[in-house]
Amino acid sequence: xxxxxxxxxxxxRNDCAKKCNGEGPRTWQTSRTELLSLLPCAFGLGxxxxxxxxxxxxxxxxxxxxxxxxxATARSILLVALIVLLCAHGKTLSKRFVNxxxxxxxxxxxxxxxxxCICSGxxxxxxxxxxxxxxxxxxxxxxxxxxFFYWFRRMRNNSPAAIVVTIAVARILYEAAMFAQSPLxxxxxxxxxxxxxxxxxxxxxxxxxxxxAFPTNxxxxxxxxxxxxxxxxxAKFLVLCVLAxxxxxxxxxxxxxWPVDAVTPLTETTTLGACLLTVLLLAGGAVAALRxxxxxxxxxxxxxxxxxxxxxxxxxxxxPQDASWxxxxxxxxxxxxxxxxxxxxxxxxxxxxxxPYLYAAVxxxxxxxxxxxxxxxxxLLGAFGPVSSNETEAVISFMLNASSLLxxxxxxxxxxxxxxxxxxxxxxxxxxxxxxxxxxxPSSMAEVREQAMxxxxxxxxxxxxxSEREMEVIKLYALGHTQSSIAEMLCxxxxxxxxxxxxxxxxxxLHSRQGILDYLNDYDE
Length: 525
Description:
The chain is an all-alpha fold. The protein has helices at residues 2-20, 28-54, 65-89, 95-120, 131-154, 160-181, 186-209, 231-256, 268-289, 294-318, 324-351, 356-368, 370-382, 389-425, 432-437, 445-464, 468-478, 483-490, 494-508, 513-524. The longest helix is centred in the C-terminal third of the chain and has 37 residues, at 389-425.
């Protein structure tokens, strides 16, 4: 009910904005359609994560060091190879290739789960000691990760609110699925994993037909994806988030293997508690995503992850004889940290111009190596003598605090830079007449230039009888945009953009972008 009321609130706010733009109000049916359109992608992402978890030694399958090390090495090699191939290709992969490769990845991952299901049903068979079975884990998880990346690609060009809701619902489905399969035998778990993995194909078909929820590709967005004044600051902030997440992930790695140098097991009570705590926080985040700015929500999520990790650290220290309670909070914190990682991947995909698989592979590879940093610091301390439990606790606290401080410091620097840049380019405030007439003065030279270009193109259009679309295209072209970027901004094909430019040249007897600029300058003078 809370989610439905929140969507009604957003509908009323969007109605107000659209009335100001001269558009009709949005109906409740449209808002409900937007809500339902998130479900195929959310289900697909949750199903992909469940199948990948069943094939990952660190999550479910095997806990012996040989398989875990082999799996980590194979996964790193896969990601590096994917990054090299995408950089060498240099172009965005076509939709047909992406869809075909996604179905192929799903089929291979499901086949590996079926093979493990058959092998686990053989009595007296040790799955951790047979090389072909280990290969099933590695191959299945590798292609499961690639199908995982497909859903990140599918989520691009949605608003931050829609992305957060989709990720939250997907993670809730994953937590519920993993808790439900925990009492099952490996044979039934692998069989269920194969079915879950194959269901992604149905989710792909539903997602391709779904209505795009809360799209961000407006013609004149007031802010960028994360709420800054420029996409460059978006990218800078995301890079800071990734660096801070490396420190946070290193602290999580040390927490999960402290204070007994092994992963602390959870009891049935603490397992249920970690699942419920994660689900409640994710549900609250999904509702809050529809009310608050993405940057605010990101900070709250970050502070929640750090707070849960700190509570786990305190419980480890206060009750070392029963570490499962501390592990409960650490597990919930780690789940929310993974949600943060997913959001960072989709954010990079949404603001970047390269292929989405490249961003997903790079960030995933960065998140694979934080344990090296944590273990390296502890090993460095060990060179000066035995590392005590208090020293390890101090290292964990330092990493948690350093990650938060890095993020807050980065935000302060970026906003100070935007304020300084705005003050240096600000022009005179709007006069009383301008306010009465509804004429608002722009706040930066870029807006001044765009408004001046708009007026010049309108005069050009009246003089040479240009259509509205031709004026829209030629304005963007005169502002320096390429034909490809214009096609993407206006949601038309590149051929159509070229045709509009050619028709404008024919009507105006001008034959280049510079010729149009020179004519407009001469006309203004």
